[in-house]
Amino acid sequence: MKFNVQQIADILEGTVSGDPDIEVDKLSKIEEGSEGSLSFLSNPKYTSYIYSTKASAVIVNDTFEPEQEVDCTLIKVADSYKAFSKLLEFYQAAKLNKNGIENPSFIHESVSYGDGLYLGAFCSVSSNVKIGENVKIFSNVSIAENVSIGDNCVIYSGAHIMSDTVIGNHVVINSGCVIGADGFGFSPNSDGSYSKIPQIGNVIIEDNVDVGALTTIDRATLGSTIIRKGVKLDNQIQVAHNVEIGENTVIASQTGIAGSSKIGKNCRIGGQVGIAGHLVIGDNVGIQAQSGIGKNIKSNSNIQGSPAFDYGDWNRSYVNFKNLPKLDKRVRDLEKNKA
User: Fold this and answer.
1) Nearest in space to 172 (alpha carbons), one of 198, 151, 186
2) In angstroms, rounded to a whole number, what is the distance separating the alpha carbons of residues 215 and 102?
3) C or N terminus of the chain, fewer CB within 10 Å?
4) pLDDT tens-digit profile of 40-98?
5) CATH tag for 100-314 (out of 2.60.120.10, 2.160.10.10, 3.20.20.140, 3.40.190.10)
6) Which residues does 238 contact at the CB level (< 8 Å), separation at least 6?
7) Any alpha helices (H) in 13-114, and if so which ranges?
8) CA–CA gap between residue 73 and residue 58 (Å, rounded)
């Protein structure tokens, strides 16, 4: 996508200092700029780069006055950082501005969908699927039967949405996700083998949820695995059967949540956290990275460790742990002197 500098200035409500007809077709850091790229200057410590950058245009604050000649065209705005963020949003929206159904792809005759659908090549949409308006589904996505998808959703390449899944509005599901696979349910037999327990529930994802790449959310054994509105899941997270994650909770990558645990709203969970099954974690809980959760957590707690306990206590304990070799030596020296 190519835009000239004047078009960009109009979008950002800025003014042009230089050639308004220069075209740009990519974004870059100011220190990595190249011909045809657009960058921005916000942090004063990067000011020196504006005199050497190869970017064709740079967004700057309208208070910026160069101390020497610059080779690039300047777009002057009230706040260059906010303006660049706005431009990123515009750029993302332009990338997603696709419509129509590409071939080859398969859509069952019973499928219903709203205006503005984009369906990439090699997608498969099974029977009784309902898709809302302005939904963008990229290549190689499979959607099983009886799935419901709301308005303004984006499903990126290679995701798999299994049967009976319910997805709300403004949901983003990134590449490689598997939503609604069977939960991990097996019963032991007398001979030591295991029999699979049928998983006949579903997954419900409410509005404004983001699901990171390669994250898996299992269907419930009975009932629903529920991701409440506003939840943000990073890449490579495992959410087991019958888990419920409360509103606006944020979870970092490689976290695993075992079956039937309930996580409250507005929680912040770091990477590589392990949460055992059938637990209740309250609201506004902070869990530091690599913590192991084996018991219920009260609301407004901030914890760390494996097994996890109060974050302040953990820090104080860690100081003592680091000093254990010195303490051990002191004890041994005292025992020698006493002898």
Assistant:
1) 151
2) 26
3) C
4) 999 999 999 999 999 999 999 999 999 999 999 999 999 999 999 998 888 888 888 89
5) 2.160.10.10
6) 215, 216, 218, 255, 256, 257
7) 80-95
8) 6
What is the spatial distance between Cα 145 and Cα 110, in angstroms, rounded to a whole number? Answer: 10
Measured CA to CA, the distance from residue 221 to residue 60 in angstroms comes to 55
Question: Do 265 and 283 contact (CB within 8 A), yes or no?
Answer: yes
Q: Among 60, 33, 62, 57, which Cα is nearest to 47's?
A: 60
Range list for CATH 2.160.10.10 in the chain:
100-314
Burial 182-202 (b: 16+ CB within 10 A, else e): bbbbeeeeeeeeeeeeebebb
Q: What is the pLDDT of residues 220-239, one digit of tens each?
A: 999 999 999 999 999 999 99
- Residue 241: both structure tokens together: 């059967």
Residue-wise DSSP of 270-323: -TT-EE-TT-EE-TT-EE-TT-EE-S-B-TT-EEEETTEEEHHHHHHHHHHHHT
Given a contact cutoff of 8 angstroms between Cβ atoms, the answer to whether 241 and 260 are in contact is: yes
Tokens of 150: 């709301």
User: Within 13 Å and on the Cβ side, how many CA atoms surround 70?
Assistant: 25
Residues serving a catalytic function are 241
**C-alpha atoms less than 13 angstroms from C-alpha of 210 in its C-beta half-sphere:** 12
Q: pTM of this prediction? A: 0.83
**Pair of tokens at residue 262:** 């309930």
